[in-house]
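Internal tracking record. Fields below are filled automatically when a chain is submitted to the structure queue. Please do not edit lines marked as system-generated. If the sequence contains nonstandard residues, flag them in the REMARKS field before resubmitting.
Queue: standard
Priority: normal
Entity type: single polypeptide chain
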Amino acid sequence: MSLSPSCRANSQNVDFLVHGGDLFHEHKPSKETLIRTEQLLAQHVFGEKTHSFKVAAGRCPVNIKDPNLSIRLPIFVIHGNHDDPGGMENLSNIDILNATKLVNYFGRSDSVEQIEVSPLLFQKGMTKIALYGIGYMKDSSFNLAFEKKRVKFLRPEGSEWFNILVLHQTKERGGTVGYNRRCFVRERTLPDFINLVLWGHEHECIPSLKECPETGSQILYMGSTTITSLIDSEARPKHCFIVTIEGRKMDVLPVPLRRARPFLYGQIELSKCKVPKDDEKAIEVCIVKRIDEMLKTSHHEAGQLPLLRLKVEYSGYQVVNTRKMTTALEGKIANHAKDFIKFYKSPFSSAAAGNRKKDAGKAQAAEGWKEVEDPDKLVLDQLVCIFAFQNAQIDRTEVDGELRGRATGGETVHGRDERGHERQCDGVDQRGLGHSLR
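SYSTEM-GENERATED OUTPUT FOLLOWS
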């Protein structure tokens, strides 16, 4: 959790602060964490200040309207996937902060069967803002609710309202293969009357607005304010944002967060380093050299050590012992020395690609197929036949002509398995969904 944006908010004299979820990283934070959080929030939330805007809370009571309190910085929060309601009482950690008037918890829905989104209404002069919130729910439930038209947005009268939606869901990733279409949320799923979407959950901070072509809404991916996992997207600069709205006009100013701990992320592919596969010392030297290059690029304050993660693609190699490297990095990085390096095998590496070509060539030679220039571009009937012969000893004389002609027709080819029992081989239909033996 990071409260540095609240410090910036008071220094910039903003009207209120909006948080897009995951105020806590754990569902059950320790008592010490809760107490420290309340102390930090109290330091920035309470204080003397005259507010020049009005707010209509609707179903969500807000602390700024409590006559017994003096609120300097109103904070409006939705829950994320790390602090969503749960348990027998269906409560979140944010409920505790909301009960103590430190934050204003909104965007909560007790049912995914019927979701009614009621806005918080703000007015300052001639500027009117409708702030909607939808706390985290499973992406599949979120998509299904919109598909079945179970989401109802309550809209104020008039067309002069500037509509903002805060949500915490997984965004669509271009080129993703193998994922269910309901495992992420498409930008065009959201209603077209929304002017600005403040999108939480995504850790990567994108310090510029993105327009959705279908709805015309402006989307801001705020990202996390602190590093919570050692991945590539966390290595990019962190920001909070000052959004200025006047009438229907909007301006977004990204403010870099200087106190976020530096994070160095790098990758290396051993097959491209041209080191012998059986020379463990040469592999270690190659990895240490890459780490030294990463550390030289770090510009951190004195006493603030950086986080470091190096991903090593080792297809065709063996995992080396990192004990010596661990000892050498003590006092140079902030994270535990055991997790600074991660070995993995990529199916798209140059070494893996070479192995695939060799395996494909052996399979063709074993089955007597004509060689092609690129084994990855085998025609469909050849691929079907190779798969069939690998899974059952089908008599080739029976299927040589039949399978070629019927591979895309969904018809059945008879054959025998290795035990001599008669089997049927279903051909691949026109959609190319698969192949089975029964």
